[in-house]
Predict the 3D structure of the following.
Amino acid sequence: MQQNSIYVYLGLIIAGLSFGAVPTFSAILRDSNVSSIEQSFIRLLIGGIAGFSLILFYSKNNIESFRKSITSSIQRTYIIQGIIIALSLNFYLASIALGTPAGEAALLLQIQPFVAIILGFTLLKESITRSKIISLSLALCGIFILIKPWEWTSFLSSLGGSLLALISGVTYGVYIVFGKLYSTKRESTPFSLSLAWVLLWAFIMWIPIFIITRITPFPSEIISFDLSTYLIFKNIVFGLGLGIIGNVIPFGLIMLTVNYIESSKASIILLIEPLGAILLAAFVLNEAITIWYVIGGFFLLLAILMIFSLSKTAKIEKDPIISLD
């Protein structure tokens, strides 16, 4: 394992924990009557402002890198990732606005490693190895326990919101794989400049989504739009949290780390997200940490540790069960 691998794993763990803050922040804003479209606006606006500021900096201080980044082939990759982020965030926040419990939304989002492994195998020729299967099996056990299917009726109390969370998980997995797919095309572009363009395009792509959403017959919890809600101090604080902790930091870390690790492995490490959601919900919302959370969380941690430890073992890692090579 390369010397900087520990930083790659640490970056992905931080990204996962940052995403885990989103359902709690969103639930708090929902209870303050902030609609999902208002939440996505502030979340993407902050990222867009940060991105635009960085782009201006590069245009004045590193003109060569800036010029390379505005070629049509490179911009196309930024636009695609921006669209994916805008869609993913809107689906996720809408699911919570429709009443999906914060913990349930975070769990349903974890369909992403399955999407990443399939797309990684198809688009990137990433082998499906024993370590990935073992880790994913452990993760499935953990998610199964956290979901508590014996309480399935209450778990799917909001079917529409649950479906939106699942769709968000699919787009989340697509973002991870596409970040890896495009990394080679952007090797000569500084990471921070690439992140800046993606964040800016995510906000720009949100605008047509906003227009389409506003003319649909969705409930007011999704489509109402009144920015005076952010005149309340609590809403400003958690809105900033959504923008920085739930957008700039995790998407940036994923974009950076997938340069050094397979997208399918990254998606499994990001399974730490529900643990972050559970811990923050307990701390901020006073939600109880049950024995099922402890057991399910243990399996998720075991899955992440398995990926880390088996990556050191050359034999099991280089003996793929399915490979396109």
Q: What stands out?
A: Residues 5-31 form the longest helix (27 residues). The chain has one domain: 5-317. The chain has 16 helices and no strands. The CA atoms of residues 70 and 76 lie 9 Å apart.
